[in-house]
Structures are given as C-alpha cells and as structure tokens.
Specification:
This is Thioesterase domain-containing protein. Belongs to the thioesterase family. The model has no long low-confidence stretch (mean pLDDT about 90). By secondary structure, the protein is an alpha/beta fold. The longest helix is centred in the middle third of the chain and has 19 residues. It has 7 helices and 6 strands. It has a single domain, classed as Rossmann fold, CATH 3.40.50.
Length: about 270
C-alpha cells in the first residue's frame, strides 16, 4: 500500500502502511545515498526515508538552499502530509541534525503531528562555538584540506580539481545553512519553558575529530527528554562502525514500535 503521490525530496512514494516512518537528513556536502544501506539494518516496520536536499545527486539541477529557515520551511511544507499521516521519527547526521530538530520544532509550533523521537548524530548544539568551517573563511584548497582533516573527504580527491569544483559550492551552501541556525526557529537554550516535549537522543563518535561529546551533550538544553550515547567511530560513525551504532539505535526504534498500536492482524 502506498500514498497517492510521490514526494520530490524523497525520490519515491512512501508506503502508507509503515508502522514508523524514519526521515533521514544528510550531512553537509552529502546526499541521501548516505542512508542507502539503512533499510536493511533497522527493525521491520520502520520505513527509512532519506531526504534529498536539492542541488546534489538526483536533484543536482535544482537550486540549493543556503539558509536554515528557508530549508526548514520548504521541507516542512513538502513533508507535512506524510508527517500527519503516520507516526514518524527523524535522524539527522551533522548538518542534518540541525534540520531534523528544526523540522520537529516547527511541526510542534504549528500544531502538526510531532515525532515519536528525534535522533541527532555528530553535531554540536547550535549555541556552542561552531565546529564546522565558516562558509567563506577559506579558499577552495584550504576548505578541501579542512574536509580531509576531519574525515569528510578522501585525500585522493585533493588532486581532482574537476571533482572539487563540483563539490565545494555544495559544501559552502550547506555550511551557510549551518551558520544561519538562528533563523531555523529553534528553542531558546536559556529558557527551559521552550524545550521540546519530545524524546531526543544524540550520538557522538568517540574518535570524531570535529565534534566533541560535550558539544553534542549540550543538545540537552533543547529538549525535556534527552539521552546521549558515545559510539565507536569518527565523524561518520554510522558508516565507519555501523554495528555498535545500530545496536543502540535499533534498541530505541524497538521501544518506539512497542509503544505504537499493534500492526494490522495482531490482537492483544
């Protein structure tokens, strides 16, 4: 069973009978392919829906976002029918964590159906000193070396000028999204009354050279129910050390599924 219309940022039509839709938001400079293997790693009943931002991969001809508020508003409009239709959760990695959390905040602020949980990976809370490079601080060569430094770019590509010319403009616009987080409609970390009434779980890589656990832990000032776990691996730990990450992540997904209504045909 499927919904009636495809959604461009998903690249396909989601199923209408999934028990839990898991919307996944990719990192700066990345794309939905980061989540290509996730469908086979999560529990049955969870539908993995990688969100593809415009300007890359299958949407490379479309204008890119460069502002967090614009990106969250556009994603919220496009995904709203799906978010209201079925229970959902969100996972965001690095830049995607900002988008996932801001989308959840927008849904609750606007009276829409909120998520069962929001999962954040490898991203410091927005009020912390930025860990990602400033979008216009470095020239192309310096920015490329910075990406290599924290594991975001294979060093072999430093000599591929043609490839870098295609990648670096995408990275810069994504970094502009991160730098504009104040326009994303986030709660005030200094006001406990604004914390989201949603379970938020954050993950930090023990070998992450870009984001330290203290920065990730600071997300606790944005949500009333906050948990954090350190998992093996660097900045891209779901890809570098998937087994320990999915052991922890799937435990949380199983708890969400257990709390939902039983699947069709199951009687209590």
């Amino acid at each position: 069973m499927t919904t009636s219309a495809p959604v461009s940022c998903l690249g396909r039509t989601p199923r209408a009978d999934a028990r839990l839709r898991l919307f996944c938001f990719h990192h700066a400079g990345g794309g939905a392919s980061f989540y290509a293997s996730w469908a086979g790693r999560v529990p049955p009943g969870v539908e993995v829906l990688p969100v593809q931002l415009p300007g890359r991969e299958a949407r490379f001809r479309e204008p890119r976002f460069s502002d967090a508020g614009e990106a969250v508003s556009a994603l919220g409009r496009e995904l709203a029918p799906l978010l209201d239709e079925r229970p959902w959760a969100a996972y965001g990695h690095s830049m995607g964590a900002l988008l996932a959390f801001a989308l959840a905040a927008a849904r609750l602020r606007e009276g829409g159906r909120g998520p069962e949980a929001v999962f954040l990976g490898a991203y410091a809370a927005p009020h912390r000193t930025p860990t990602l490079p400033a979008p216009d601080r470095y020239g192309d060569a310096e920015l490329a070396r910075a990406l290599v430094g924290f594991g975001g770019l294979d060093p072999r590509f430093l000599d591929r000028d043609d490839w870098l010319r295609a990648l670096l403009p995408i990275v810069r616009d994504d970094l502009r999204i991160c730098a504009s987080h104040r326009r994303a409609g986030l709660p005030d970390p200094d006001d406990e009354r604004t914390r989201l009434p949603v379970r938020v779980e954050a993950f930090a890589g023990t070998d992450d050279r870009l984001v330290d656990p203290a920065g990730v832990r600071a997300w606790g000032r944005y949500a009333r129910d906050f948990r954090m776990a350190c998992v093996p691996g660097g900045h891209f730990f779901p890809r570098e050390a998937p087994v320990p990450f999915f052991d922890r992540f799937n435990g949380s997904l199983h708890r969400i599924l257990a709390a939902l209504d039983p699947p069709p045909g199951v009687r209590c």
